[in-house]
Amino acid sequence: MTTAATLVAAVVFIGASALTLATVPENLYGTVHARVELAVRRVASEAQAGTLPRELKTPARVQLLRVLSPTGEVLASSTSFPQDARVTAFRPARPETVETMELDLARHPEEPRSHHLLMAMTVRSPRGLVTVQGASSLADVDTALMWIHLMVYLGTPLVLVIVALLTWAVVSYALRPVERVRAELAEITGQDLSRRVPVPPTGDEIADLAETTNHTLDRLERSAETQRRFVADASHELRSPISALRAQLEVANSYPDETDWPATGARALAAADRLTGIIDELLMLAKLDAGAVTPRRVVDLCLVAEEQIRRREGGRAPIFLHACAAAPVLGSPVQLDRLLTNLLDNAARHTASRIDVEVTVRGDQVVVTVTDDGDGIAPEDRERVFERFTRLESSRAKDKSGSGLGLPLSREIAVAHGGTLTVADHAPGARFVAVLPLHRT
Known about the structure:
Oligomer: single chain
Number of domains: 3
Organism: Nonomuraea rubra
CATH class of the largest domain: Alpha Beta
CATH superfamily of the largest domain: Histidine kinase-like ATPase, C-terminal domain
Structural class: alpha+beta
Helix content: 40-55%
Enzyme class: transferase
Main location: membrane
Number of helices: 9
Order of helices and strands: HEEHEEEHHHEHEEHEEHHEE
GO cellular component, one term: plasma membrane
Strand order of the largest sheet: 2-1-5-4-3
Keywords: Kinase, Membrane, Phosphoprotein, Transferase, Transmembrane, Transmembrane helix, Two-component regulatory system
């Protein structure tokens, strides 16, 4: 930014300087030239008319005037015109024309010479050809040009240096909050995400950057905390079935003759199935968290519900599917099947006598409801059940085989498909409502 500002200032000042040097000297000399020429022509007119006085009056800023005969005799003169041979010899080559020259004159012999503009004009008078000479000092012009050259050749570089220093200072001051943000971010590590960058009270883009950075750190902290809790809970949930399986196998191995191997194998298989279910749910959650894109096609949720109920015939509680029509949804067949599987598994664990399933199309949405007639879920716990590894006390008392991942996974699947999963009011029991966008062909 300093370089850019300095280059822009250099272009402006160099252009202005070039324009000044090209026009101002010519204008200054032109002004003096016009002033002296006007005085010379006035005196020449008086000489032609024969009304020439012996002592000439000089107008403002014209210091010297005189009239010479062809022999060099001074016919009329201002009182201060010096008797200089060089001036006497200066005559125009053609009559009625004005010629100009620059020379150093002194109005008195004892004075130092100064720079003058001298003009001469030859005209015919009653006394014959006479030469009118006029001069004006160029000291003011020389002084003005000296200051102009000083400003151009010394002032311009000095101004550019000042512009560069001021730009550097202003930009450094403006970016100081950014440096504080950078320094604070450099100190923040993955082990401590509680620190935040300072927000300057300026209300500008840098303040917006600091606020956005803090919001990002908030999300990172929440994500890291969720990940730590997830790993801890996953380790706890996996440790229990593994420990139970290990204990069963160690006892069976220690007392092989007294072990009921078919029963032990069945228990080990059940523990392995539970581990497989937990791992599958963890893997699917990890894919959803990572935003992995799964192949999608049109899935009829009414057909999925019918297939689920068909697979669960003969279960502890009967499942009643209300009449449903085609309900197409664009999504992953595996994930949508898993969503309904988890909802039905949850309902089967808590229901008292029956489970009701309904799949309907309402406008641009497909609504799936799974209702049981169990103890229900208290209003204050209706969001907690969607937290990973969260199991209510009533759920632990009824079934110790759950992992606390089914409902969170179902909600993640619904959200990934642009829908929602909530707990609705219902008595007795609990009602889960999944809303997904309808796919129209």
